Amino acid sequence: MPNFPDDAADPVQLLDVRRKFGPVPALDGVSLTVRRGELFGLIGHNGAGKSTLFKMMLGLIQPSGGMLRVLGADTRSAAFRNARTRIGYLPENFVTYENLSGLEVLYLFADLKNAPRRGCAALLERVGLGDAAGRRVHGYSKGMRQRLGLAQALLGEPRLLFLDEPTNGLDPAGIADFYAILHELRGRGATIVITSHILAEIQQRVDRLAILQGGRLAALGTLGELRERQPLPLRIAATLRPGLPACTLDSLRSLGLVLEMNEATLDAKLPPGAGRATIACPPERKMQLLAALAPVASGLDIQEPTLEQLFLGYGDAHAQAH
Ligand SMILES: Nc1ncnc2c1ncn2[C@@H]1O[C@H](COP(=O)(O)OP(=O)(O)OP(=O)(O)O)[C@@H](O)[C@H]1O
């Protein structure tokens, strides 16, 4: 693997990036860094500025203010033309020539990118289009087109990948395979920035995340860090042993908000497993509540706040501020 001069630096460095379209600020002072080898998630509501940021990181549109340094080069500099050959991009709506076969499309992109044609067939195989390589794109399904888009983004072994809603249209097996491909790429040192509206899909897969709200950076960090900054309640579902003293139930109520409780739990003749409680617990009381539940519960299911809940929380804060 070659040693690029930018290998030591963070591949994406954004400083106070701003962009207006007429009076509309699409990006309003975004500063962040994507570290080498990271799988980095960029999320935000429709119109938050994700695609605009991607296009700016690719040098396709210029900032109204601030600075973008990508693979070691200012996106406005002549040196960035060279850096761009090491960037792969899958746009939100990948469209291509309908009358060409998948392999011909890939040849075309390889030529445009100055990448060798000889890897194209293997790349199609890797994204699951080996059997369809000779078929015209016209007959491809939505998921097949998305796979072809991914294949073109992977041409030339990019060091940095920008993938805009890449799993749109993929079936569950396709999604799993897609992340396996990203995993391989990262193993070879690539850095990947991905957007998605399917937060459940990316929450366990990305290393860090940025949340954009109305063109501003609302949050940046790992899922754990985001949870610390916005301490939403945990949901604890407990299977309670029958015949609990009322005082135990009172102490559970005092530690969290009991969302659901089977009052028959007090009945000593209940069959095992019939007594259930769901409790929303502030994170700082988690250990206390678990200690209180341990002697009286036969089963516990603890659900940390999901990325979706955190994201919606930031949305509420944004709405209140405007
Ligand atoms: N070429 C353009 N001309 C005018 N306004 C634009 C242009 N491109 C983007 N915008 C505006 O900039 C804002 C950000 O748009 P952008 O496409 O970056 O959002 P997004 O986060 O990618 O949204 P989505 O999730 O819907 O794809 C929106 O208000 C949009 O209308």
From TrEMBL:
Query: A Pfam family in this protein?
Result: ABC_tran
Tell me which positions the record assigns to the signal sequence. none
| tRNA processing is among the record's keywords | no
Gene Ontology molecular functions = ATP binding; ATP hydrolysis activity
Segments crossing the lipid bilayer: none
Keyword annotations of the record? ATP-binding, Cell membrane, Membrane, Nucleotide-binding, Transport
Q: What is this protein called?
A: ATP-binding cassette domain-containing protein
Question: Is this entry keyworded DNA-binding?
Answer: no
Q: Which residues form the ABC transporter domain?
A: 12-239
Which InterPro entries does the UniProt entry name for this protein?
A: AAA+_ATPase, ABC_transporter-like_ATP-bd, ABC_transporter-like_CS, ABC_Transporter_VariousFunc, P-loop_NTPase
Which residue stretches, if any, does this entry annotate as coiled coil? none
